[in-house]
Amino acid sequence: MAIRVLLVDDQPLLRTGFRMILEAEQDLAVVGEAGDGLQALEQVRALQPDVVLMDIRMPRMDGVEATRQITGPAKDGPAKVLVLTTFDLDEYVVEALRAGASGFLLKDAPANELVQAIRVVAAGEAMLAPSITRRLLDKYAGHLPSGEESVPDTLHTLAEREVEVLKLVARGLSNAEIAADLFVSETTVKTHVGHVLTKLGLRDRVQAAVYAYESGLVRPGAQ
User: Long-range contacts for 186-192 (Cβ within 8 Å, ≥24 apart)?
Assistant: First the structure.
């Protein structure tokens, strides 16, 4: 079954470029396009895509609010949202992640990265590129906790190893990289990540990373 993709961007030329890239892949199918957030909501309901490639700044309704409605409790389908961004618009990316996006990608990313990101998100994983994540969180260093604040009570529900895994997730490491770092199997890492998400009431690794920074468990710029 091909992964059904909805393209959402207010620039028709960009949508055309993305369509050409994605339709060259046998396992991807572009099922529709939208030029703003309101059109995106209509298309999601009508077309039931697996992944929505979402721009941030658009007329009528921006990508943050559209993402919130697509992935929220009243959602009409299983669509995952992959946010497209440029670094001059970063102030909206963290809000999009809080709203329910499963990851983000630069608009000038190579075609193979775009294709792989869609596959990752469609599979239920989070697209959390370490280099982009660090740059974004460094930019927000003045707005996120310093690490000196008391940690939220929910964090105390985690076992010591689960806290270690959460820190590594926040740094953008994959399951394989975490396994190598902690000298355990990938299956063990997946189990720990699952426990972290369940205990903290989080949807995926992206929300876990944002939580780790906002709680002060990890500080921007720290390794």
Answer: 189/165, 192/161, 192/162, 192/165
